[in-house]
Amino acid sequence: MNKRQYKRVLTIAGSDSGGGAGIQADIKAISANGCFAASAITAVTVQNTLGVEAVHPIPIDILRGQIDAVLSDIGADAIKIGMLHSAEVVDVVAEMIQKYNLSNVVLDPVMVSTSGHRLIEESAIDHLRKVLIPLARVITPNLPEAEILAGVKIGSAEEFPAVARQLSQGGKVSVLLKAGHLTDQRVVDIFYNAEDDTITELPSERIDTPNTHGTGCTLSSALAATIAQGLPLTEAARAAKDYIDSAIRSGAEYSIGHGHGPVNHFWRVKS
Known about the structure:
Layout: E1 8-16, H1 22-32, E2 36-48, E3 51-57, H2 60-73, E4 78-81, H3 87-99, E5 105-107, H4 122-132, E6 138-139, H5 143-150, H6 160-166, E7 174-177, E8 186-193, E9 198-205, H7 215-228, H8 233-251
């Protein structure tokens, strides 16, 4: 008798002790979207809803070992990449992607936490752009991250399609450009599908809530999960956007901690 097989997603990211972002948010979002979540931790943070107090990098050989252990045994239908604090870490992740010939790679270029704490060394940013982004299928920058990666100032949502194309490595990498940092009441993310050269708007209404910690991690993990499930790329992006919109909306009904609380990853589960 043939047993059922999980759709598997490996997340490579930092740990958030407060549980709202990083590996913890990734595992919740991947699980909530019907996939088996495995993890490789790049750094341990001292963190809660009020902010990040300290970051402790995981030794490079341990990081490489975690990724190798998962991929050599369990495998992965998609990879989600989050916090990579140094050029050395970027190199190891790129090395493992190439070793295992991975194609469904979703890269969230995490640079600054919700509370404003820098999560990547300055020297690693250019390395991320040149070494890792070309190996990704999709990148999911927010507005400040897009400005850093593209080297431009973005003044309005009208500029998003051009910036997304600029970030696509010559039409080779798809881009989900997030508009949450703009002040418009209607939030219109842009998805540039490099595989068919199309731009799709992903609109939602802005939700008035402080509970936005880990939204980027959650969205990129949901996207990795929907890709692992086999959805066409634009459909996967739309499903991930719908998921995070509902998670923010549901999370706004809760109170936890004294700062930026998390979204409700399991909004589909009735409590």
